[in-house]
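RECORD TYPE: inverse folding
INPUT: structure tokens
STRUCTURE:
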């Protein structure tokens, strides 16, 4: 058994001692920390993911730059992607301008992306509070300069962020039950994930995100 540490948004935003200790506990034991009670998050998330599903399932969206992945268990993943640089939020690729769903998604997703990004910034500000700043060569060097980054937040805020909206849809049913994806390690310093949304149907007992703890469980 394991415990996922949850930090209320108000504590995270104030960089309190309580949030520092909770963050240290979560990252040390499971590598997972959740943030609760984020203002405007719940309703915005539901609307964004609903329109993301309707938009990304359009064949025209795929032709415009979205992409699809077919898995062995009969699930297809339709994806819309975007980037955030230190200067701007680049537009989501693959949006069909003639689709009402894509138009709604485009408007709502920018607000959603900015909200998630702001919470991510608070997250790394708390990491700086725990680890300290002026760490110099203890972190990493800027790839364009010989100088080292001074803090974790400096790395995150100056780095390029990849953002993906994934929609999973089952199109065939295999004879034997299997997971859509095997255990794997994603690239990147951190992954900021939002809870998924079942647009149609209900999850079964095996649905969800599986993690492997440091003890192998």
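DESIGNED SEQUENCE:
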């Amino acid at each position: 058994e394991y415990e996922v540490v949850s930090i209320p948004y108000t504590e995270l935003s104030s960089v309190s001692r309580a949030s520092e200790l909770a963050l240290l506990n979560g990252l040390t034991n499971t590598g997972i920390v959740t943030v609760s009670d984020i203002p405007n998050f719940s309703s915005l998330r539901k609307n964004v993911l609903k329109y993301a599903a309707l938009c990304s399932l359009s064949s025209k969206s795929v032709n415009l730059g979205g992409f699809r992945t077919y898995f062995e268990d009969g699930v297809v993943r339709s994806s819309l992607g975007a980037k955030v640089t230190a200067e701007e939020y680049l537009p989501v690729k693959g949006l069909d301008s003639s689709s009402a769903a894509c138009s709604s998604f485009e408007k709502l997703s920018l607000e959603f992306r900015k909200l998630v990004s702001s919470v991510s910034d608070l997250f790394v500000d708390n990491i700086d509070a725990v680890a300290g700043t002026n760490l110099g060569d203890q972190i990493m060097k800027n790839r364009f300069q010989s100088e080292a980054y001074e803090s974790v937040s400096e790395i995150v805020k100056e780095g390029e962020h990849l953002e993906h909206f994934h929609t999973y849809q089952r199109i065939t049913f295999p004879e034997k039950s299997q997971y859509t994806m095997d255990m794997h390690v994603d690239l990147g310093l951190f992954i900021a994930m939002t809870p998924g949304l079942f647009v149609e149907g209900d999850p079964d007992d095996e649905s969800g995100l599986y993690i492997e703890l440091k003890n192998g469980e």
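NOTES: Strands lie at 5-8, 33-36, 67-70, 75-84, 161-170.
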